[in-house]
Design goal:
The chain is α/β, with parallel strands linked by helices and 230 residues long. The chain is built from nine helices and seven strands. Strands 1, 2, 3, 4, 5, 6 and 7 form a seven-stranded mixed sheet that branches.
Length: 230
Amino acid sequence: MSRIHPFDYVFGAVAQEWFTGIRDEATQSQRDTSDLAAFAKLSATERILGEMRAGNADGVDGADKQAPSPELPEAYLYLLFVAYRFWDTGGHTMELSREEVERALDRGEEMTPPAVPHGACYVRFPERAFWSQVDSQAPHEPLDGVFVITGRAGREIVVLGVLGLRPERGGFSQITATAVPEDLAAARAAARQPPFDPAMDGGQVAGFRSVTSVAELLLLAHLALAHARG
């Protein structure tokens, strides 16, 4: 059975209408949609964010159906930005097998940050291989994959991890990090040693790995880009 794709799950029915509107306005106003600040100022972006907040985007994290937290508008903006860039560059998705995950984890330091294919992609991990939390009080959730997006003429990287994605849930959780490309290569030194050590009860026995910090999320994105296959 094929796994659901987070982009299709959240934006499938409205993607063409919403994102064509963003692209048309950006073209007319000569705004660079790879720049998050410029993207956020588009009237089409503001309108869509309002619809997402009002209707919960038909799927973004079910916990968000409660009163919005101060972080919620920013979370929606990052999700919309990442989804638009993914759509605008062709919607490229890559898969990592369990064997590739093991090779990636065994690999030493990377001196040069790998390029992001097409400027935006989604890298999917083996089911339940990695787990994370949106905060220290939240449950551990499996990491389906990461969107990796370049911005600001290649001088910024946005990594958005998709947690707890399953059809019956009605949404998913997200974790987000921004960095310059060089930060991906430096992430190993900033991560726990060893990185991705399980942080949940029974994780060691089950063979799970945990992503517990921004550094580990960036390191995972770096390793994924180096080993993922189209």
